[in-house]
Amino acid sequence: MSTVPLTHILFVSTALFFTGMYGLFTRRNMITILMSVELILNSVNINFVAFNKYLYPQKMEGIFFTIFIITIAAAEAAVAIAIVINLYRTHKSIDVDDATEMKW
Amino acid sequence: MNYQQYLLPVLLLPLACFLLLGLFGKKYLKNASGVIGTASMLVVTVISVLVAGNYFFADGKIDGVYQHIIAYKYSWLAFSPTMSIDMGAIVDPISMMMIVVVSFISLMVHIFSLGYMKGEERFATYYAYLSLFTFSMLGLVLSSNIFQIYIFWELVGASSFLLIGFYYNKPSAVAASKKAFIVTRFADFGFLIGILVLSFYGGTLDFNTLIQRLTAPQSGEYIAITTASFLGISMLTWGLSLVFIGGAGKSAMFPLHIWLPDAMEGPTPVSALIHAATMVVAGVYLVARLFPVFAIDVSALQVVTWVGAISAFIAAIIACTQTDIKRVLAYSTMSQIGYMMFALGVSRYGGESGLGYTASLFHLFTHAFFKSLLFLGAGVIIHFVHSNDLKDMGGLRKLMPVTHIAFLVACLAIAGVPPFAGFFSKEEILTASFHSNKVIYGIALFTAGLTAFYMFRLYFSIFWRKEPGVHSTHHADGTTSMKIPLIILMICSIGAGFVPFTKMVTSDGVALETHMDILFSLVPITIVMLAIFFAARMYKKENGSADKMAATFGNFYKAATKKFYVDEIYLFVTRKVIFNLIGRPAAWIDRNIIDAFVNGVATATGSISVFIKGWQSGKVQTYALCFFSGIAGLAILFIYLWK
Fold first, then answer.
1. Which of B223, B15, B30, B275 is nearest to B139 (CA)?
2. What are the backbone dihedrals phi and psi of residue B458, each rounded to the nearest 5 degrees, phi first?
3. Residue of B611, B621, B627 to mutate, interface with A, max A Cβ within 10 Å
4. Cβ-nearest to A102 among B618, B621, B628
5. Alpha-carbon gap, residue B222 to B401, rounded angstroms
6. What's the pLDDT score for residue A73?
């Protein structure tokens, strides 16, 4: 089995992270923002798994953390979608720029 | 005898009564409140008399010397192991004499008010205030600690304020109550500084310890307080004089007397209780309480003597010219308290030389009876005539026989005609001042004449002068509850002089042997008789001789009618001098410097916040960007710059 070097995997996760970051700052649609957040979380997951495999192959902590993060991401998605639905009911829009009433 | 067991109820019963009537009286106990107050006062009086009787005749004396007994003492605020504010009760001849006087006069006033204040809307409140006053006054006379006396001192001041301003919808009463409070409060400031001076050097607030330390010439405290001086006067004199200022304020001594005549705006029974018999003699009591210390400092005693003598003299002159019946009595009170003060002033500690002390307290004792009788009598008259002015009275002797006789007895007593009460006490004061200072004796003698003159001017103007007018003849004497106190006090005014006072209350607790000297008594009696004769000539029938007399004195008479312009001087000093030179600049600094600074801080905060709040765009992504840039910045800082 040809081995993929760690740096390649880290490169992928960094690319994923900044793609998510870009989406988080530029998109106006709340669903897209939520998807960007998922991308960021997944880039972290990749990091965890990669470091676990390459540096401490006999241990399992990185994989456990990844499973935790996936669980929490699922819960967070449920909450976020509930917020989006409620926002849509009151504002008839899911554009973040339309929800600025609570600025001060 | 266990004094604590008896003295605690004496104090706490009026307090409980005040709380009960004050909280629930107006709503639930409207008419019963008078009876409740009077009943509790009756109990207090009975206990007081029992305790005092027991002290004087059973267990107060050890080897013929009356002891100072501390009935109880609860430490309340301890500053240090040696200095603490205690709540205690002292049992000695003067405190025992005072609790009898206070509770007895208070009881008489309670009974009298049942009739006098009947139908008053705030009847329950009135009795609540009376109970509060009685509680504070009893607390004052029993105090074993100089700070404790100060606390009760302020309490009597507050209850006096409440009672003077009882008719609070009358502007003059409100003004009078404020005046009384402010003037006495001003004097109490001196008292407080005096307490601080004495306790700073004495190292204690406890009366007995303080007196012990400051009267022992070899004690460290005595040496410290006499060697320290300020403006060339020793700290002992300063401390005592400042304490005396507090006493002078409460006792309406010149020039702090201006509140007393105005205080007559209160209900008349209140004047009888507070402004004649009890509260106004608190100053005398205070000097008497600290007398052993006063006695070693001749300069402080000189201050007491001259303030007392001047007050007695000036007040007597003013009393001759006033036409308001209660004001005449107020000035007469001031004059008599002046008598007590200079009697203390000419006295020394112990033995024969302590006669002035005994005389002063004897006069306090007798004065309480006849002066409250005069006020209650005046109350009956005012109740009937509905006016305070002498012009509206005259010829009342047939309409109100009981009041007439009572008033006559009181006048004879205050004038010092034997064998009425005032004669004995005044005689002792005259003897004491004769042996120590002839000038004071002269003033005292002249004042005694004036006293007789103005009292009988009052008497003849009220009861003779005119023939009875159109007044109806029934109920002129008032209700039974008003007559009973008059009769009891009348008996006391006759009999109080026969109390063997010199055996009971002396400066050092040892009984004093006194002997009446007929030749000595002859002079004052003659003067008093002449004064009464003159008053009868001038006022018994309307014959214009009074006006002629007034015209002879001209401007002097006018000045006396205007109370020697003391009020006007006060107004000038406060309105013109203090307001313009201190008040206005202080107000300017307050408005333009202090307020401006505070306002500036507020304005700056406001404008900065308006500026900052623009950053709160409400756009979630902007916040996230800031958040991320912050994290990135910190990351750069920690990774590359933090070496």
1. B15
2. -60, -50
3. B621
4. B618
5. 59
6. 93
A24 part of contact set with chain B, CB < 8 Å: yes
Name which residue leads in pLDDT, B554 or B531: B531
d(CA B414, CA B378) in angstroms, rounded, equals: 15
- Residue type, position B489, single letter: L
**Nearest chain A Cα to B623, which residue?**
A25
> Is any Cβ of chain B less than 8 angstroms from the Cβ of A92?
no
Structure-block tokens of residue B190? 């001196």
Residues of chain B above pLDDT 70, percent: 97
Q: Do B619 and A102 touch (CB under 8 A)?
A: no
Contact A48, A65 (CB under 8 A): yes
Closest CA to A29 of A103, A84, A89, A91: A84
Phi, psi (rounded to 5 degrees) for B278: -115, -65
pLDDT above 70 for B471:
no
This prediction's pTM: 0.77
Asked if B390 and B458 touch (Cβ cutoff 8 Å), the reply is: yes
Instruction: Give the integer Cα–Cα distance in Å for A95 and B611.
Output: 27
- Give the Cα separation of B119 and B36 in Å (integer): 16
* Residue B65: how many other CB atoms lie within 10 Å: 12
Span B89-96, average pLDDT: 87
| Residues in CB range of A31: below 8 A, 6 or more apart | A84, A94
In this prediction, residue B597 carries a pLDDT of 92
Q: What is the pLDDT of residue B296?
A: 85
Give the angle subtended at the CA of B282 by the CAs of B280 and B283, to the nearest 5°: 95
Find out whether B50 and B168 touch, Cβ atoms under 8 Å.
no
Where residue B480 falls among pLDDT bands split at 50, 70, 90?
A: confident
CB B402: neighbour CB atoms within 10 A?
18
Average confidence (pLDDT) over A54-70: 90
pLDDT of amino acid B625 = 87
Taking CB atoms within 8 Å and a gap of at least 24, the contacts of A9-14 are: A9/A46, A9/A50, A10/A47, A10/A50, A12/A46, A13/A43, A13/A44, A13/A46, A13/A47, A13/A50, A14/A43
Helix (H) or strand (E) holding B90: strand B84-91
Which tops the pLDDT comparison, B105 or B563? B105
Q: Residue B88: helix, strand or coil by DSSP?
A: strand
The CA-atom distances, in angstroms, between B246 and each of A22, B99, B183, B195, B617 are 83, 21, 10, 10, 67
Q: Using alpha carbons only, how large is chain B's radius of gyration in Å? A: 30
Q: What's chain B's length in residues?
A: 643
Identify the top-confidence range among B330-344, B525-539, B566-580: B330-344
> What ranges do the domains of chain B cover?
1-191+201-206+267-296, 298-561, 572-641
Structural domains in chain A, CATH included, are 6-98 (1.10.287.3510)
**What is the pLDDT of chain B when averaged over all its residues?**
84
DSSP percent split of chain A into helix, strand, coil, nearest 5: 80, 0, 20
Please answer whether residues B372 and B277 qualify as being in contact, where contact means their C-beta atoms are separated by less than 8 angstroms. Answer: yes
Rounded CA-CA distance B450/B319 in Å is: 9
Q: Which residue has the higher pLDDT, B158 or B352?
A: B158
Token pair listed for A78? 């449920």
- Chain A contact present for B549, CB below 8 A: no
- pLDDT score of A85: 92
Beta bridge partners of B86: B75
Residues of A with CB below 8 A from B618's CB?
99-104
